[in-house]
Design a protein that fits this description.
Elements lengths: L2 E2 L10 E4 L4 E4 L5 E2 L21 H4 L3 H8 L3 E3 L6 E3 L4 E5 L6 E4 L11 E2 L6 H14 L13 E34 L2 E25 L6 H5 L10 E2 L9 E3 L5 H22 L6 E11 L3 E15 L5 E7 L5 E3 L10 H16 L6
Parallel strand pairs: 9-15, 10-13
Antiparallel strand pairs: 1-8, 2-3, 3-4, 5-6, 7-8, 7-13, 9-12, 10-11, 10-14, 10-15, 15-16, 16-17
The structure holds zinc ion (2 copies).
The site of one zinc ion has 8 residues, from loops.
């Protein structure tokens, strides 16, 4: 069986993960349980057996396989009704009995996440934070925001890859310093040429990237960072009561994206360590990187769709651990702040022209 639900030991009702208490809550008898207390149930497919692929995957019949490829069909563990899902769905709700269902078969083998950051912000708190976010926006007329237009709020675990790596960098350049002074009627210019060399170790830690192609990358990466020190070993139980999506980005694809990203950051860092020259001509900048450590992690995201009065649907995302929000507002409303940005750019230009920045 590759669709599971977690049952209350008291009343057999469905359990959901409760962010406020970090326990499992029965919505029928209002009991709370620790993870250990619901172990050993049929529901608790032990997902931690890393080397053994889950039996759920092994038992998949030809029929099920075909269904999976076409957008799969599962049987609800509570009422037996058919649950039709997208190919990447890993946790959802039964359309008929509304009980939470975790599709454990989707998270087996190479698709078993290494870690998960459980939701720390529950639905009510998330709504409140979205409201605060809207209210704080400068230049947005009050009429844009109306609580009733908050259409749909969903808690979703999205798949991300994280990457840490050790790089070595080397930079060779020619730097020039100039000194100008007056003596009598003469202006003297002294030009000194320096050989500049930099070498160093650069450690990149916990870069994160969205690992699902169909999502909006701006919304998914605009709410980074997460505090990965709070990540837990992956457990299916955390998904109960939320939606979840598995990754469709491959490990090697992710690794090469991270490597070039880490390399670019290392170069910027190395270049930034050289300063004080009137001009700098970089002749050589090499970065050597080790293989690096890739980790597949489920991160909690609240998503909101908002129906604007102009008829447009706006999308917002919130980091389910820190409450950081990302999303766009109608372009018209952003105009009032444009002059300020322009002034900034003009000032910057004058400073550059005036030689405040030497390189
Ligand atoms: Zn119960
Ligand atoms: Zn059902």
């Amino acid at each position: 069986m590759s669709a599971i639900s977690f049952k209350c030991p008291n009343c057999d009702g469905e359990l959901v993960f409760d962010p406020a208490t970090q326990k499992y809550k029965c919505e029928y008898c209002c009991s709370y349980f620790q993870r250990e207390e619901i172990n050993g149930q049929g529901a608790a497919d032990e997902p931690k057996a890393e080397d053994a692929p889950e039996t759920a995957g092994a038992e998949e019949s030809e029929e099920e396989k075909e269904a999976r490829e076409a957008g799969a069909v599962y049987a609800c563990p509570s009422c037996g009704a058919e649950i039709v899902t997208d190919e990447t769905t890993a946790a959802t709700f039964c359309y008929y009995c509304h009980n939470p269902v975790v599709l454990s078969g989707r998270l087996s083998g190479e698709f078993l996440p290494d870690r998960v950051i459980p939701f720390a912000i529950d639905k009510e708190a998330a709504k409140q934070k979205f409201i605060e976010f809207f209210r704080k926006q400068k230049g947005i007329p009050r009429s844009f925001f109306n609580k009733k237009q908050m259409k749909k709020i969903s808690g979703i675990y999205f798949p991300y890859f994280t990457y840490s790596s050790h790089l070595k960098g080397r930079l060779e350049a020619e730097g020039i310093k100039r000194r100008v002074w007056m003596q009598g009627d003469y202006e003297y210019t002294e030009k000194s040429v320096y050989r500049v060399e930099r070498e160093g170790d650069i450690f990149v830690k916990d870069l994160a990237k969205n690992a699902l192609t169909k999502t909006n990358h701006v919304l998914m990466e605009g709410i980074l960072p997460y505090d990965l020190s709070e990540a837990k070993p992956f457990d299916m139980g955390y998904l109960s009561g939320f939606l979840a999506e598995k990754r469709d980005v491959g490990e090697s694809e992710a690794t090469s994206m991270f490597q070039s990203d880490a390399g670019a950051r290392a170069k910027t860092h190395l270049r930034g360590s050289v300063w004080g020259y009137w001009s700098l001509d970089v002749e050589n900048c090499e970065i050597f990187s080790e293989k690096g450590e890739l980790s597949y992690v489920f991160l909690p995201v609240w998503t909101l769709t908002y129906q604007g009065k102009d008829g447009t649907t706006y999308y917002y995302s919130m980091n389910g651990q820190t409450g950081k929000v990302c999303g766009k507002f109608p372009v018209d409303y952003i105009r009032p702040i444009l002059p300020a940005v322009l002034t900034g750019i003009v000032t910057l230009f004058i400073m550059i022209a005036g030689g405040c920045f030497l390189w």
